[in-house]
Structure formats: C-alpha cells, structure tokens
C-alpha cells in the first residue's frame, strides 16, 4: 500500500466519522508572523476553532535536524491530523486510531504497541488512556508509560518549560513492531 492510498483511506475514514476536510496551508503562513515555517498540523487551525476538522498538512521541522533520517525524524513530511475541538475526547479518539490502523490499514493488532504519558512536570500519570487502550483490546504488555521527554507535545517542550497559556499536553502514541528483513 503506497502513501497515496493511505492518504485516501485516512481522509475517507474520518469523513465517515463526520469530520470535514480542510485545505492544507502552505509551509510559510502569511497570516502568522510568529512562525517562519509550518511545523505541525495544528498551527494553521486558528481559523477553524469550531467543530471537527482534519487535514493533511505539509510540515517542516527544524528543531531536531541532527536526528533526521533515523526511524522517525524527517525535515519535511505530510502530517495526517484529525482534530476534535470540544466534540469528543480520548475514548473516541483512541478508538478511531485503533480502528483505522487495524480495520482500514489491516495492521495485525498483535504487532501494535502504544505509549501513554507516565506523568511528570507536575502533570499526573494518564491512567485514563491506559484503561481505554485496555478496553479497546490492547494487551497490557503492549502499553508503555513514558515521561514528558517522550510523551508530551507542545512547542516549548516539557510541561515545566511551557509558558503560561501555551497549548500542550500528554499524548498517546501507537507504533508497529516490524522485524527487519535480512
């Protein structure tokens, strides 16, 4: 399955869930003088802070150039994003992610692992996501807790580095275990 097919499956999946596709913004956003490049799929959502929106957003990352070309860091990529701005929360979102990976993409559930925020920086451990992943059917041995260095998103970094009012929070990631071919 190629990237074009994955992109179409992703868009179709979330349209069926009632989401609306929004047009990607350019890598350089004229309307935001605070940033040089679009570095995430959420930056250009400011005009869309009502309802459910999702996008496939070209993004460029410069803050971790020394890590580019490992198994998960790129300087330019398309970020598949879906956003619930007040409509639903973790239970539905984690269920959607699991359904997309296992049903739409056909990835075997026994090869999927998830991470959950383990607490830190004055923010408690995310036991709610842990319980939701278990209820979805993820084996406890496939759920891993990580601290803010690995499982926290914000432009400033970890919770203790965030200025007042900065948007950010714990995240939960899903990964596929693949054995390299010899």
From TrEMBL:
InterPro entries per record: aa-tRNA-synth_II/BPL/LPL (IPR045864), Ala-tRNA-synth_IIc_core (IPR018165), Ala-tRNA-synth_IIc_N (IPR018164), Ala-tRNA_ligase (IPR050058)
One Pfam family this sequence matches: tRNA-synt_2c
Residue ranges occupied by any Alanyl-transfer RNA synthetases family profile domain in the UniProt entry: 1-182
GO BP annotations listed: alanyl-tRNA aminoacylation
SUPFAM superfamilies: Class II aaRS and biotin synthetases
PROSITE patterns assigned: AA_TRNA_LIGASE_II_ALA (PS50860)
Signal sequence residues: none
Superkingdom to which the source organism belongs: Bacteria
Protein's name in the database: alanine--tRNA ligase
Organism annotation: Candidatus Woesebacteria bacterium GW2011_GWA1_40_43
